[in-house]
Write a structure and sequence with these properties.
The protein is α+β, with helices and mostly antiparallel strands. 42% of the residues lie in helices and 18% in strands.
């Protein structure tokens, strides 16, 4: 099976940047399980020596997490990578509430102005009747 060159070129950017969230710490094992070394796992990988001390070894491709365009990478206290995505439902709800609020304010202002106009008309009619 062969891929056409335009298709391959179209897929290349997405393949190259698909994993952009990597763990940041290597933890020991056994009696050294509370020890860690800082290690960017985008270009390195973790290993332990024979007593469980964590090691960060260079030049090894690891698999990261693909968070997507709307999410950002965050790390917990142990250096574990994860994706944080804004809740779209909260954003949609906020937009709806702002729209309802603006509609209510517009409605209130419109009818308040209408009421003043009616009061002015009633006053004019009353004054005209008194002048007659």
């Amino acid at each position: 099976m062969t891929l056409s060159l335009p298709l391959l070129l179209a897929l290349l950017p997405s393949l190259a940047s698909s994993y952009h969230c990597y763990d940041q710490k290597c933890w020991g094992i056994g009696t050294k399980n509370s020890t860690y070394v800082t290690c960017n796992l985008e270009w390195n990988h973790c290993k332990s020596d024979n007593v469980g001390t964590p090691l960060c070894l260079e030049h090894f491709d690891t698999v990261g997490i693909m968070c997507g365009d709307q999410c950002k990478c965050e790390y917990d206290v142990r250096g574990k990578a994860g994706c944080h995505c804004p809740n779209k439902y909260i954003l949609i709800l906020a937009v709806i509430l702002v729209g309802i609020s603006l509609s209510g304010i517009s409605w209130f202002a419109y009818y308040r102005c209408q009421g003043r106009r009616n009061e002015d008309r009633n006053t004019e009619v009353y004054v005209n009747e008194l002048e007659k």
